[in-house]
UniProtKB/TrEMBL annotation:
Keyword tags: Hydrolase
Lineage of origin: Bacteria, Bacillati, Actinomycetota, Actinomycetes, Kitasatosporales
AB hydrolase-1 domain boundaries: 26-274
UniProt entry tagged with the keyword Hydrolase: yes
PANTHER family for the chain: HYDROLASE, PUTATIVE (AFU_ORTHOLOGUE AFUA_2G14860)-RELATED, MONOACYLGLYCEROL LIPASE
Listed InterPro entries: AB_hydrolase_1, AB_hydrolase_fold, AB_hydrolase_sf
Source organism superkingdom: Bacteria
Name assigned to this protein: Alpha/beta hydrolase
GO MF, one example: hydrolase activity
Coiled coil (UniProt feature): none
Length: 284
């Protein structure tokens, strides 16, 4: 579906429960990702009674892509989330609104929450809870940072198709055969990569390399229930760092067995169960 707001039009996937929703969840993807990263969560969360909306951020896959590089600054992405959130709340009868960000999306949801709380501190936040999924407090792990920097350098001089072919060549010698995607998935990943806006990728990569740690500011919002979810391993932020961040936030930390950086895709049933359990405890 398409979500039309004053901030632009955002492509979305939506899952609906059979009866009246117990709540609504807005799911925000990360760097090089899209709404499809959450597709395996839609059905189990809807079966648990939650309306679920996963979006492409501006410049990602099927959403609007502004031409101005400044349009991809983190505060702009945060304002987009507020606009989408207000649209969902205006529908009514969706129950409390829960916000979740995966990986880089965690920076965006944090930005949205902090900006909203600073701008109108006397008013309640539009979100009933915040979940950080496989995200860290600041810059990514140095090894992954080096890979991201290489990608950003390539974006400065090569087209997306050429970069895709180079990435496939690099993966051929190091990828476990068990991790090779099915042909239809590989085709989707290729199409999605080509649909990304290079300016958006550069802006997101820059934040992954240099975003400051704002955990203490987020922790100060002690009336907002928070959850941290990770896999047992993570190439972007060490799980131990994610656990320490959860402790600083006063948040419960759920580790999804058998999952890596994307529990939403790798262990969707277990991840959905953890999310539904948390959201069910939140009182609007």
């Amino acid at each position: 579906m398409r979500l039309s707001t004053a901030r632009g039009t955002f492509a979305a996937l939506r899952g609906e429960p059979a009866g009246a929703p117990r709540g609504t969840a807005l799911l925000v993807p990360g760097f090089t990702g899209s709404k499809e990263d959450f597709i395996a969560l839609l059905e189990p969360l809807a079966q648990a009674g939650f309306r679920v909306v996963a979006v492409d951020q501006r410049g990602q896959y099927e959403s609007t892509a502004p031409t101005d590089p400044a349009a991809y600054a983190l505060p702009e992405l945060g304002r987009d989330l507020l606009a989408v959130s207000e649209l969902l709340l205006a529908e009514g009868d969706g129950g409390p609104l829960h916000l979740l960000g995966h990986s880089f999306g965690g920076f965006v949801v944090r930005e949205a929450v902090l900006a909203r709380s600073t701008a109108l501190p006397a008013q309640a936040l539009p979100w009933a809870s915040l979940t950080l999924l496989s995200t860290g407090p600041g810059p990514i792990d140095p090894t992954e940072a080096a890979r991201t920097k290489m990608l950003m350098d390539a974006l400065g001089g090569l087209d997306l198709e050429t970069i895709w072919q180079l990435m496939q060549q690099m993966d051929e010698g190091s990828r476990d055969p068990a991790d090779v995607p099915a042909p239809e998935i590989a085709d989707f990943l290729h199409r999605r990569w080509l649909a990304n806006d290079p300016q958006a990728l550069l802006a997101m990569g820059d934040r992954l390399l240099g975003e400051p740690d704002r955990t203490d500011l987020l922790a100060a919002l002690d009336t907002l229930p928070k959850l941290a979810v990770s896999g047992v391993r993570d190439y972007a932020w060490p799980v131990e760092e994610q656990a320490r961040t959860a402790e600083r936030l006063g948040a419960r930390h759920v580790v999804v067995a058998g999952a890596g950086h994307s529990p939403n895709a790798e262990r969707p049933l277990e991840t959905a169960a953890a999310l539904a359990d948390f959201w069910s405890t939140v009182r609007p």
